[in-house]
Every structure is written in structure tokens, then in C-alpha cells.
Amino acid sequence: MHRYPYAKLTLQLDAIEFGMRAEREGFDAYIIGSFSEPFLQETRSVLDIPVVSLAEASLLTACSLSEQFALISLSSAYARRLRGVVKRHGLESRLAGVHGLTTPRDEAEVDSAFASPGELIEDFLSVARKAVDGGADCIIPAEGLLSELLYENHVTSIADATVLDCVGATLLHAEMLVNAKRRLGLGVGRRWAFPKPPPDLLGELRAGRDR
After folding, report:
1. What is the spatial distance between Cα 144 and Cα 135, in angstroms, rounded to a whole number?
2. How many domains, in total, are found in the chain?
3. Range of the structural domain that residue 28 is part of
4. Same structural domain for residues 161 and 63?
């Protein structure tokens, strides 16, 4: 569906609503658990709780673990979009490469592979070795399900390079931001990129959508 910009827009609009509902219900943080980062800037602009992106948290963690990192996605089509994600966060100079699995897979196929993961893991490791040879000291499995399958099967390194558990790192990043807000009073800056709409304007906009 992400091939089609309008379909992507329509599907991902719910992401903002989920975040606003989470804040109303008293959650401490909101994690956008997708490497596509739907409406990250817009969501941060309306929430006061920390908004954490799976992609951003993974990239920032990789920067602390390595000088150069590489991303491995489920297919070359996904890999192409990931370059845009890295560029959006200004980290092109830290990127050693973006790769797809040798045998393209979708999320349903990865989910099924939990029962018998050997073939998928071997495919990932084969691509990861090439990424390490290309200069990466940290490998980011750029799909949440893939990351969890690898972690569950104790794939945490390859050829002396770290294989990042993206989901775990993102959860820890969220906990850190919650602690930073509670203990240090740190919150998102509202001056330039994330100005929050006044309550009356936000109410008018939401009422217009509900009509």
C-alpha cells in the first residue's frame, strides 16, 4: 500500500489519532513502531508526552554504538525508502549502506518464519556480512518483526559487528525520555519544528474533520 502516496496518507492518518488517544488515557509516552515514521513531526507537535520513532531511536542508538551503520530491510523496494528516512534525520554521513534480503519477504512471511526461522536468519546473516565488509559496525534490521525474530534467536552480532534489537532499543529510548521529562523537566522544543496548535484552533480543526 505504501507504493501509493494517497493510500499511504489515508492509512497513516490514524497514527496521530492513536497518539492523542494515548495521551488522553494517561500513557507516559507514545511509540511510532514503524520505520516509515508516519506523521512523526505532526504527532510531536500535538502531544506533550514523549513521541518516539522506531526508526529515529534505532538510528540514534546505532550512532552511539558505531561510526558507520547499515540497514537491512525485507526487500530492495523497502530499502529504497529507508534512504529517505536516514536523510530526514541528517545521518547520511554515518550510513554504510542500505540492503534488502536476498529473498524478498513481507511481514506475514516474517511472522510465519518464527516457527522455523533458519532460512530467514541465514539470508539476513549473508547480507549482514556484506554490509560489515562495506564498513558497518552496527547492523539495523529495519523491520520490527525481523528485529524481534533475530533477538529471539540470539542473533546479536555478526563478524564482530553489533546487530541491533530495534524494538528493545526503542522501548529503552522511550523510558529515557520519560525519565528526562520527569526528572529534568525536558520536553520537545516548540519554537520552530514542533509548535503546538492553540486549543481553540485544534478544536476547530478536529471538529472540521468530524463533519
Report:
1. 23
2. 2
3. 5-54+169-210
4. yes
